[in-house]
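[step 3/7] fold_predict: job queued, chain A
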Amino acid sequence: MADFIAVMISNPSNPVLEGADIEAARLRLGGGRPTWLEPGIAAEFAVPEKPEALHSLRKELDLQSIDIGVVPAGNRRKRLLLADMDSTIIQQEGVDEIARMSGCGDEVSRITDLAMRGDIPFREALMRRVKLFRGKPASILERVWKERIEMTPGAATLAATMRGNGAHCIIVSGGFTAISERVADALGFHEHFAHILEISDNLLTGRVCPPLLGRVSKVEILQEKLEALDIDRSDVLAVGDGSNDLGMIELAGLGVSYRGKPILARNCDIQINHGDLTALLYLQGYKAAEFRTCWS
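[step 4/7] structure written:
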């Protein structure tokens, strides 16, 4: 049995993967006979070792809107999903959407971008952004949820399929519970961790209630769940897009950069830059016929 599996994935909305692409990659990596996980969208083949040529091949496939990831052949279906929320499970950055409704969108977006690139510490960025919300009506939070938040394509299928196969699903976000609570409920995540915005007299105070949840906190949550669920880190899938996700992604058995910012992508072996979130199911060896769209 091969030690690794190479998985090639394109976006379901743009199914460009062809047999010739798979054959070329298979020959280049010394792989075995390919198997379609879904024609036009995803396929896999065994490889004897983690290939040194993967980086250059990934760059070439990027030009064709195709992702490739190499994962261990054993223990593929994970028992714990830890997912960042903003720009991962949802398409927006919640803090930026609150800011736009509060009239300070440009300044908050600038700070968000610096933080996600790792140019300023997460804690500093969070405090600076939230301070700008001081005195704004708390009703903005409900409006943001109803008017601005959109789930990332594949998010519902990812959560429903993993939960339906016995995995514990958790959102770990540097955003806010005003959004994460609703997202978790809508998609069927078992738990969510995020910041609580302080409210007084129906106004935002410009502060968050402790504790602050950053890169270290996400790792601590992962470690706590390993013990609580009595599982190993090889049983974990962690996914995110920003620098504060790097710790949990490095610790997880399957760590994925999803449309990741440069600092994350540079340090993450598995990158999904073209597929939607169902790509994380294909990486685990699920076929499209096994996908679920509803967890209840």
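[step 5/7] annotate
Residues 1-74 form a domain with the Alpha-Beta Plaits fold (CATH 3.30.70).
The first helix runs from residue 19 to 29.
exit 0
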